[in-house]
Amino acid sequence: MATRIDEEYQQLKRQVHAYLVERLDEEGVEVERTEKSKLDAFVQVNVAQYINTHRIPLAASDQSMLARETMDEIVGYGPLEPLLADGQINDILLNGPRSVFVEVAGVLQKAHTRFIDDEHVMRIIRRVLAPLGRRLDESSPMVDARLPDGSRVNAIIPPIALDGPSISIRKFTNKHLTASDLVNRGSMTRECLDLLISIVQGRRNLLVSGGTGTGKTTILNMLSQYLPKDERIVTIEDSAELQLEHPHIVRLETRPANAEGSGRISARELVINALRMRPDRVIVGEVRSGEIIELLQAMNTGHEGSMSTIHANTSKDALIRIETLLAVNGYDAGERAIGRLISSSLDVIVQLARLPSGRRLVSEIVALTPTKDDPYLSRTLYRAKELSEVEA
């Protein structure tokens, strides 16, 4: 019964939205140039008029909700609007019109949000992409984009996505966790924080490693407040998420190819260019391709204290992943030479983890202490109490 009622409401929502679009066109209302308060009043009046004209039995609270959701359809991102406005939600994952999940405090849970159908989802995706001039169709079925507030969006559509169009949103926030916040939340101990501060101020090259959603960017943002203020910092990112607390910073962002397939600027090109900008430190948001070659060489040739993140579940996995990235991106050298490059460039790996409860924490900090026979010999500087107890 509840399913049928919901289907009827979604159908009503579709009809009201179509009616409002017609009324806006008839009245010559330009949505982008009209004050939100006037637009809101216009929507409420016309929703009420539609309900009365068609004699639809609808409670006042439901009519109010219908007007609000119709407003979101016209000026915002439809059903995503309440989720984007909810400060507790970190990620929004839409797996089709009737399957929406959100991550709250590190735990995924299903949301009550739903779309009418696949076309409804596509309409919202087009609205995200319209100001960016980006393309999404059968010939180019995947796209990365960014909302005006900085939130990162990935969209993928059929035929690649078998169950309908899918959207993944990593929300951007200006409320970055401080070192005290991380200590109070149990993400690290005071001992761990003091160690990280000494690593940063000691100009040691640092790699933050972790799986999805472990807080790699959060740690980089936190560490930035301990960078000496007289240094020049250059950052390179695929999607600008770092909000470094520093007075002298130059932010660079990659650019994807345009609809004609040209104009792409890769992270590797930006790292090469960054080294011509007289940086004291280079910070790469995440290494995932050929930029690893230039970053390691920068770390090894006078840019001590540089930092980056990498997607890996352990510090050993991080080293293996770097080896793989070097190999697949044309770094033509033997195994020993690759080992020497990595060990002479990197000083410290900070490994992050996410517990089943959703809590994120610094699981360990290891320092590379290479020898002639073992370039990856390491020494554990810190290990989280939780992990030590599990191993014991």
TrEMBL record:
Taxonomy, superkingdom: Bacteria
Every AAA+ ATPase domain range: 202-356
Gene3D superfamilies: 3.30.450.380, P-loop containing nucleotide triphosphate hydrolases
InterPro entries named in the record: AAA+_ATPase, P-loop_NTPase, T2SS/T4SS_dom, T4SS_GSP_E_ATPase
Classification via Pfam families: T2SSE
PANTHER family xrefs: TWITCHING MOTILITY PROTEIN PILT, TYPE II_IV SECRETION SYSTEM ATPASE
Family to which this protein belongs: Belongs to the GSP E family.
Protein's recorded name: CpaF family protein
Organism: Marinobacter daepoensis
Lineage, highest ranks first: Bacteria, Pseudomonadati, Pseudomonadota, Gammaproteobacteria, Pseudomonadales
